[in-house]
Description:
Layout: H1 2-31, H2 36-51, H3 61-92, H4 101-129, H5 144-186
Amino acid sequence: MKSLQGLGIWLGRKWLNCQKKKQEAQTQLDKLPVDKNLLRMEWAAQINEQTKPLARRSANLANKIIEEILVLKSKLDSAKDDLKDLQDILESGDYGIDTSVMDINMQMDELEGVCMRLRNTIAKKKKTLDVDEHLNLAKLLNNKFLQLRVNALALKKRIRARLCQRKFELEGLERAFRGKANKANGM
């Protein structure tokens, strides 16, 4: 019974301390000239990035990445064709009844953004595979070297993430130990 009271007192102290720190942080945050919605979006992005599962090794991981690249390339080609069609419409002046120059221009800007994002994604995936731009990706399906390379990269990322987690666990443990040791020495 006494240990439950001690736990309750400890929890109460921790809760009050958290509320005090929250109030201080809120005061500092209110002083900043930053949009709160932007901070919420950045916070959500950080949570999403930090909690996503780590890549695992797989026999088909390289094939999966190659297939993703091939699909992205077909989407990029389609977007380029649509962009060329819009440029042709703009050059010819045949906009149609419900379309204006501004509509065509906005669609072109959107397609250019899509093309840029697709190119960046393809480049990142190719960097993962470490393949040259001129290689035929379809021929690389079931390539044992690429499978081993991608699996090794996934393992390396996993080990690094685990080491970081372990480091933070040990720092918390050391901090708690130092606090206890300081309390014992101070008494």
